[in-house]
Each structure stands twice: as C-alpha cells, then as structure tokens.
Amino acid sequence: MKANDIILAKIQSLNHNGEGVFKTKDITIFVPRGVPGDTLKVKVKKLRKNYGSGEIIAIVKPSPLRVNPECKAFENGCGGCQWLHIDYKTQLLWKARIVNKILGVALNENIKVLPCLGMKEPYHYRNKLSLNREDSKNSKKLGLMKENSLEIVEFDYCKQELESNQKAYEIIRKQRIPFSITQIHVRSNQKGETGIYFYAPTNTKTISNFSKELLQKIKDLKGVGLSTHNDYYHLVGEKVIKEDIGDLNYLIPINGFFQTNYTQAQQLQEIVFDLLKPTKKDKILDLYCGAGFFSLFLAKEVESVYGIENNSSSIESAIRNAKINNITNANFVCADVKEEIVSFRKKSIDCIILDPPRVGSEIEVLDEIVKMKPKKIIYISCSPQSLARDLKSLSHLYKITFCKPVDMFPHTYHIEVVVKLELNASDSHKKMEVKKAEVKKTPIIIKKNFDLKKVKNIKPKENKKIILKKSKNKEKT
Description:
Residues 436-477 have low confidence and may be disordered. The chain has helices spanning 72-75, 88-107, 163-172, 205-217, 262-276, 293-299, 312-324, 337-340, 363-372, 384-394; strands at residues 6-10, 13-14, 20-23, 28-31, 39-47, 51-61, 128-133, 142-145, 152-153, 183-188, 194-199, 221-227, 232-237, 240-245, 248-253, 283-287, 304-309, 330-334, 351-354, 376-381, 398-406, 416-423. By secondary structure, it is of the alpha/beta class. The strands form four sheets. It has a seven-stranded mixed sheet with strand order 9-8-7-10-11-12-13, covered by helices on one side. Strands 18-17-16-19-20-22-21 form a seven-stranded mixed sheet, sandwiched between helices.
C-alpha cells in the first residue's frame, strides 16, 4: 500500500478524533466521515510506518448506521458537526466506548464507564455560535471552519444552534463588517437574548461604530464586546446575558465561559450533586469555576464554597450571581488556579471540583491537590485524553468510583465526562506528590483582578452579608 492508492475499506470502528477506522494485518487507515459497517472506496492520503489516513472516494455499501445529514454545509466540508451522518444512538454508544478505551490504556486497568447520557432532542442546543472570516485581501467570507482546514464554509442555516443565534447571524452576514474583525461570537440564552463579541488585533472607531449599529438592528441584542491580542473592551450595551438553570439565575459574561448546552448543563449539575451528597459541614473548592456554575448550585447545601478562575469577567459574574441568588457562603477570587490553590494548603477542604479547560489541569494544581488530600474529587472534563493523563497522576492516591460521559455536543466527536475519585483509606495520612513527568505544563496566565465596586448596585433578594474575597481589576471599557 502506498500514497494515492485506491483501496476497498470496510470501516470497523471510530477513533477519538471521530474518524472511521479500517485495519489490516499490517496497517491502520483513518477515514474521516467513515461509519462502522461502511464499505468504501478510499484514496490513501498519507502513510506512516503502521498507520495512515484516507479520503472517501465512493460509498460502495453504506452502513445501516449511516443517516442523511440533511445539511448543505456538512456536505461542503463544515467541521462543526463531524458525526451528523451517524445515527444518534450509535454516537452515544461510541462515545462511551472511546472513553473506556482511552482511560483503560492510560491507567492500565478496566474502568467501568457508564452509558453516555444523551439528549431527547439533539438539535438546536448550542447557545454559542463562533463565526470565522477568511483572511484574504480579496475575500472576507463569514462562516464556519472547514474540517481540518483554514477554509471557511458559508451556510444559510445551522440546525445545531439556538434560533436566536441563527437570527443574529442572518443579520450580521448582511452587514458591512469592519475588515480587521477576524471572528464573531454570538451567545444566546433560552429567552432569545443575545450577546456578541469580536476578535480583532486592536480596538478602532470603526469597530465601535459597527457594534452600535448591531445593537440597533438585532432584536434582543443586549451588549457587544471586543477581544484583542492583549485586552478585552466592552463596547456597548450590557456586559452579560441572563439565564435560569434550575432554581438559579446566572449572569453570563458575553466573553466568558459557560456550558454550551443549557439542557445538558442542568443534567451535569444533578449528577455532580448526587455524587457529592453534600452536607452542611462540607467545604468545597471549585477550581476553574467560571461564573460559578457548580459553586452556586452547591452553596446552599454546604458550609462554604471557594471558587478560583482566571477570567475576570467570569469572576465578576460569579459574584453578581451570588448576590442575585442571595447566596452568602460563596467566596470567589480571580487568579491563576495553580498560584491561588497554594493558599488552601492549611484549610480543611472536603471536596474539590475540577472543571479545567480542554488542556486539562496543570501539574502544580494536581500536586497541591495530592498534598491537600480531599476525601472526594469530582472531575468534569471535555477532553478524555487530558482527563486520562490527570487521572493517572492521581491514581496512586485516589480510586475511580464513577465515570459517565454526558453528551454536551451531539453530532460531534467531543465528549464531556464526569468522574468521581475517592481517597484511598490507607493513603489518607501519607505525604505524597505528583511526579512532574506525568503531566505537561500549560502556559502561565497572568493574575487578573477586579473591582467589587462595579457590582455594588445589584440588590439581593434579601439584605444579607455576602462573603467574598476582594481584589482589584483593570478592565478596559
């Protein structure tokens, strides 16, 4: 077999990148958009010693698991949904299998992975639409990224997005967008209220004027912001949109992180609550806490919650969220997690919630967790690979007692996983630390602070004292 050969391939499985897998005795070929059970004509693209990649030339016999994606953008190569052509129940099955394989290989043991929790209606769930613009002097296409490419795929309608995102997009694409804007991000709540922020090298008057135009033209657009290489600028309108999940009201920063799927987000909260079984004596540390999604949900059931996050907008929203929900035992600080966690060495923490970005947790954070020895750790991960790496670093001290994928991203290969770790009884008094070779370091994020005066005018439902950790902010407006 060599590059450019046309082969007949029977797809046997799916890998963690969402590709179909064809194996022979000597080599494995990964085929994007292949479905288990497909018989395909495949052109071999690249070859290494024992693996390679291929491209579908023709479907000789489609798998019974293959479905019509009914999406022109998907047919044109859009990378937003890699599995739109696969039966949904099959997607859930393979997500659990992939998690099982990744964790099993990394930890060298058979981990019991529960079935993936899917959605009853796995469409119109995405509350954030990320649009890219083609970087060309002759063209400024607006759309989604082509799979494994920097090309832009234009689209008319995306059935994964909330309708309010779609309506905002239809207006934006008709506007004369400033040339320097390279990305446009639209986030909506379930009421249809929307926030938008741009990416551009610098802030300009043209961009500022454009934001004001959008505020006038897009119904229920609440605010617009701009991220540059070094700063974030609030341009016009409000800084947040509001969303209710369960009994809580959340203020979500336009440029901050929040769960992409509101329906499954509530399912995540309920799973975490059931795993923790919180009591009024518990002290919880929430690392990478965002706008307080887990912290505030648990706060009313425990003695205290401490949240750490490096995004100043998210922390400001977390504090506001505590106020409007009348939560008085939530403490939030805006700092790099690996720096701030050191201050908890001598505090008695019963449980740690880990919800890091895709790259996973830093080695320094894991080392501090091992020194602290909380009885429970709840790890919420959006990357099984980084999850496996971090679990390996904790496996000498903790045992996995629960592992369940939650389908936050239907029709994609992306997987959210909830894991519960419990401290081994025999190791509760041992002094241990993580070996640095086990985890790669992630870039250092400069500590940011915020000004609590900005949130003083938000009134809680009752006049109760709120316990907050103060710091300063230099956000630009």
